[in-house]
Design a protein that fits this description.
heterodimer, A: mainly beta, Jelly Rolls, 8-stranded antiparallel beta sheet, 4-stranded antiparallel beta sheet, 12 strands, globular, B: alpha+beta, two-stranded antiparallel ribbon, about 15% helix, rod-shaped
Chain lengths: ~170, ~60
């Protein structure tokens, strides 16, 4: 499935922006988006975690950082141990520990019920080893996504060098 | 209760980024999880003689 996704990117999608963080931040965001007009986005996110214990990568929309406004669920393989997970918050990737990295490929689309849904595949490094996760995030409070915000679960947890590349559907 | 912290917001319309003070969840907020550890489940099912091999679940 990943290879098929990479093959359709050139003809169907165009790069909208590429942003690299040069200082540590708490939220790392891109604004000025318009999901309703663009239809869907593909987001390549590479995050560097600064300090703290194992925390998940969260994605917020439109700077709505109220965790309870989101639901997420996923399947995780953490160091060979498989689990099904369900969260009352927007977890888009498995755990990351201090000075470790996460990579997530996220597809975002506004669906027939009017709400955006994000699905992702991710790889992250944490204290137990490597984690691989497939996840989905949904919210019933936002219809058009104009901003995407990433949070590493801790104050100033998004480290310098974190990067996101956003593609949109080629019209 | 949310707290204030710094966010880097990049605006694709202006091509510029800025640092803003934003509300974020408290750093200590746990990630609630209701996960099932299938390896443990299989061990329990085998121990209780409900199944004899993991393949019987597939």
């Amino acid at each position: 499935m990943p290879f098929a996704m990479f093959q359709v990117i050139p003809p169907l999608f165009e790069r909208l922006t590429e942003v690299t963080l040069d200082r540590d931040a708490t939220l790392f965001s891109v604004t000025g988006l318009d999901l309703e007009a663009d239809g869907c986005y593909l987001i390549f996110y590479q995050g560097v975690k600064t300090t703290g214990g194992d925390t998940n990568l969260w994605i917020f929309f439109n700077r709505d950082t109220t965790a309870a406004n989101y639901i997420s669920c996923g399947l995780a393989n953490q160091a060979g141990s498989f689990s099904a997970r369900y969260f009352g918050c927007p977890v888009i990737s498995g755990p990351i520990s201090a000075n470790k990295t996460v990579f997530a490929l996220i597809a975002l689309m506004r669906c027939a019920d009017g709400y955006p849904r994000a699905v992702a595949m991710s790889s992250s490094s944490y204290s137990g080893g490597e984690a691989f996760m497939t996840t989905a995030v949904v919210t019933k409070y936002i219809t058009n996504v104009k901003e995407i915000d990433f949070w590493h679960g801790i104050d100033y947890g998004v480290g310098a060098g974190s990067k996101m590349i956003i593609f949109r559907r080629r019209l | 209760m949310n707290m204030k912290s710094r966010a880097y917001i990049y605006d694709i319309k202006t091509g510029k980024g800025e640092w803003l003070e934003v509300d974020i969840p408290p750093a200590s907020l746990p990630s609630p999880s209701f996960g099932i550890n299938f390896e443990k489940l299989i061990k329990v099912l085998i121990a209780k003689r409900i199944i004899s091999t993991p393949e019987e679940l597939i």
